[in-house]
Amino acid sequence: MLDLQKIRADFPILSETVYGKPLVYFDNAATTQKPRCVVQKMEEGYYKRNANIHRGVHFLSQEATEAHEQARETIRAFIGAKSSNEIVFTRGTTEAINLVASSFGDLLQAGDEILLTAMEHHSNIVPWQLLRTRKGIEIKVIPFTNRGELLLDELAKSINPKTKLIACTHISNALGTINPINEIIKIAHAANIPVLVDGAQSVPHLKIDMQALDADFFVFSAHKIYGPTGIGVLYGKEKWLDKMPPYQGGGEMIAKVSFENTTFAALPFKFEAGTPDFIGSTAFAEALRYISAIGIENIAAHENKLLLYATEKLRKLENIRFIGEAEHKSGLISFLVGSIHPYDVGSILDKLGIAVRTGHHCAQPVMEVFSIEGTVRASFGLYNTTQEIDVFIDGVERVKKMFKQ
Amino acid sequence: MTINEKQDAIIAEFEFLEDWLDKYQQIIDKGMSSAGVSAKEKTPQNLIEGCQSKVWIVAEMHEGKVVFRAESNTDIAGGIAAMLVDVLSGHTPEEIIQTELYFLEKIGLKEHLSPTRANGMLAMIKQLKLFALAFQTKQ
After folding, report:
1. B3-138 — its CATH code?
2. Are residues A286 and A325 in the same domain?
3. What residues of A are in contact with residue B25 (Cβ under 8 Å)?
4. Which of B76, B80, B111, B121 to mutate to test the interface with A (most CBs of A within 10 A)?
5. How close A400 gets to chain B, by Cα (Å)?
6. Which string of b and e fits B95-126 if b means at least 16 CB within 10 Å?
7. B17 contacts chain A (CB < 8 A)
């Protein structure tokens, strides 16, 4: 059991009011709120050890370098990576996928194939389409059932000698489905195909262990796990990162530069051109420490309780259509209320102080499968309560009345 | 009624509604009861696409006066469109072009006037005035 009163006190924003109503924040799949310790870490970084890292001989620079590399180590330990060489800092999940699409993509030839699933976020579709334009690769898509579960048979059938990578989300941001990622990786590895896992939605909700998972690439963002915006991670097995050419050029990523020839720095710096976000990295690590102290398993259990409670209550209201009813789901509910447009539902809930997301959730192909324009999505975080779900349910009832449904 | 008299009437109507939800109820009801456009008229030319909502607006000339009709796939954007259409319909192109639409801000819908707002109210107003301008040029 989580001590919710204590946890909520760590998040100052949760005591804000909107339109005079207490804020009910159910948009955690988009971004999470920040505990005080994370913001304090940023402040401390700027006030106490702000100096550009890695190259400086002076005291502050060494302090900042130490803190930044210590943060990398915290992240490594959090996801159970073998070496901090496998932890590349990026601006977020999207940049991490673009990095792989660009650098791993350089190793591919025209006619090579990449497998995606039909439930990917646009950020795990568009980079591969850009690669397709650049290199003439093919993209194949694994479909899912109307409950929102991937058809693993189709995955196995789609694999052939031209398949060079499977890029798959761990948890669907539009449906909440937790994909059987271990099984997917096993199927892929049996055919010697590497797997990129989009962990943006899973890292905040599931225990992640790279050794058990054995993903070749795993990408996620700090801001979805109570950390700062603008920083994320590409985990990559060294054997792949070694083979891949750099993504961007600049300072930090070189060993020696001359106009005739440049040699690149060792991992992970080869992929980190320019001054990194050495303030964000330490706040990111602080967020992971905060989560670890509470226990990710405890958080998962709490969110699952909220999911079941909210699903049960919504089911009791008439005329609710659930989009995504997989057996294994994270704390996220996508739904429609009668024939009311999600935008209308979201606008009214907003006036009641309830923040939900409406629209296609950057997963338009998912919406196409259901022939809908979008959904209302309520997504829970560690600080949400069943009382907040009651407020939300009252809100949905109010919406139904207002739109006469 | 002049355009401004109509604007003032709407402002008076909303003045009593202190609660946000009552204001929205009023808007939703206006959307639900508006004339609408036919399926045939839902062409790309008549469409104003916001991020999450779609609004179709058609305009016709009757004896020198412009008559608008609007419909949306969302009731809130539809209600806003219905109010705009009611205010501007039945007036000459010149009157419409010269009108300053102040009622939306006065009834507390200023937030919808932001250019990034999903329902694209600014785009609706621009389109209504463009229709009027086109009729004026034809005359």
Report:
1. 3.90.1010.10
2. no
3. 402
4. B76
5. 11
6. bbeebebebbeebebeebeeeebbbbbbbbbe
7. no
Instruction: Please check whether residue A336 is in contact with residue A320, taking contact to mean a CB–CB distance below 8 angstroms.
Output: yes
Q: Please, what is the angle between helix A278-294 and helix A59-79, to 10°?
A: 40
3-state SS of A191-250?
CCCCEEEECCCCCCCCCCCHHHHCCCEEEEEHHHHCCCCCCEEEEECHHHHHHCCCCCCC
Respond yes or no: is residue A168 known to be catalytic. no
**Owning domain of residue A303:** 4-30+296-402
Q: Is A105 on the interface with B (CB under 8 A)?
A: no
Residues in A touching B32 (Cβ below 8 Å): 404
- Model pTM? 0.93
Q: What is the largest CA-CA distance in chain B?
A: 45
Question: Is A342's CB within 8 Å of B119's CB?
Answer: no
Taking only the tens of pLDDT, chain A with its 405 residues reads 899 999 999 999 999 999 899 999 999 999 999 999 999 999 999 999 999 998 888 999 999 999 999 999 999 999 999 999 999 999 999 999 999 999 999 999 999 999 999 999 999 999 999 999 999 999 999 999 999 999 999 999 999 999 999 999 999 999 999 999 999 999 999 999 999 999 999 999 999 999 999 999 999 999 999 999 999 999 999 999 999 999 999 988 888 889 888 889 999 999 999 999 999 999 999 999 999 999 999 999 999 999 999 999 999 999 999 999 999 999 999 999 999 999 999 999 999 999 999 999 999 999 999 999 999 999 999 999 999 999 999 999 999 999 998
Compute the C-alpha angle B57/B62/B65, nearest 5°. 80
User: Closest to B21 (Cβ–Cβ): which among A340, A351, A358?
Assistant: A351
Distance from CA of A401 to the nearest CA of B (A): 10
Chain B neighbours among A 6-35 (CB < 8 Å)? 19
Domain boundaries, given as residue ranges, for chain B: 3-138
**Per the omega criterion (within 30 degrees of 0), is the bond before A204 cis?**
no
Distance separating alpha carbons of residues A291 and A370, to the nearest angstrom: 35
Residues A262 and A357 in one domain: no
Q: Are residues A300 and A280 in the same domain?
A: no
- Please state the separation of Cα A9 from the chain's center in Å: 25
CB atoms within 10 A of CB B21: 17
> Measured between CB atoms, does B111 come within 8 Å of chain A?
no
**DSSP assignment, residue B19?**
S
**Domain ends where: A292, A326, A358?**
A292
- Whose tokens are 């006065």? That residue is B106
